[in-house]
Amino acid sequence: MDATLTNDVEKASRDLVEAGYCLIECPLPAAVFEKLRGRLLEVAEQERENGSAFLYDGGNQRVFSLLNKGEEFEQNVQDPTVMLLMEEILGFGFLLSSTHANIAGPGGSRMHLHADQTFARPPWPPYPLVANSMWMLDDFTEDNGATRLVPGSHLLGRQPDYDRGEGNTETVAVCAPAGSVMVFDGRLWHQTGANTTDRPRHGILNYYCRGYVRQQQNFFSGLREDVATRATPELRRLLGYENYFSLGMTDGLP
Ligand SMILES: O=C(O)CCC(=O)C(=O)O
């Protein structure tokens, strides 16, 4: 089954369980969305101009560590609708694993098919260890590199087997208007599509993990001090400053 765009969180939650992904109609006020998109485009351009940009796959660009690059991103990782869905599939005390942007540029090629929990050796438990969210900052279309995926593949509970040709499994492009957010299970097979247009496709990937899984980004050594200092209680928890049962304690104390 394919998930469809919705503003009904219960339907989104069902799609996430059954299809491995769900698609939510833009939950952000227009002004907040425009600021978020504007800041990302600004940072991406600065990094291309100052030579620090991470460019790959013939036209694509990643912009890492977004929390250090604008307050807009601090709010975005705490979006209440996404928080609700993440708690449902990752459980109490889930963490932010990383936040970065993937820009599929004109001429950028299709990414290899994969599930995000690459760090976990098989056999996988029958539930996701991580989950991702893709904020679409442009309309995502078949031609401009919309994320492609294999609906239901999360239920296979493993990576595609390239030796058996599963790297070429048929995928569907997840097309939705700018502002939409897709939440997807860490076991779902997916990839960036090829961008055959003359305009970049911007997306922000806010990636979360269970409370006992190591985060992709090391926020304790990499996060700017002012960002950590002004973090809301919710953001501090997402970063890993709170204990999870007996994990994450300081000197034997929460
Ligand atoms: O940019 C996309 O559409 C997906 C990116 C992706 O699959 C990844 O970063 O693992």
UniProtKB/TrEMBL annotation:
Gene3D superfamilies: q2cbj1_9rhob like domain (2.60.120.620). Transmembrane segments: none annotated. InterPro entries: Phytyl_CoA_dOase-like. GO terms for molecular function: 2-oxoglutarate-dependent dioxygenase activity; iron ion binding. PANTHER family: ECTOINE DIOXYGENASE, PHYTANOYL-COA DIOXYGENASE DOMAIN CONTAINING 1. This is MmcH. It comes from Streptomyces lavendulae. The gene is mmcH.
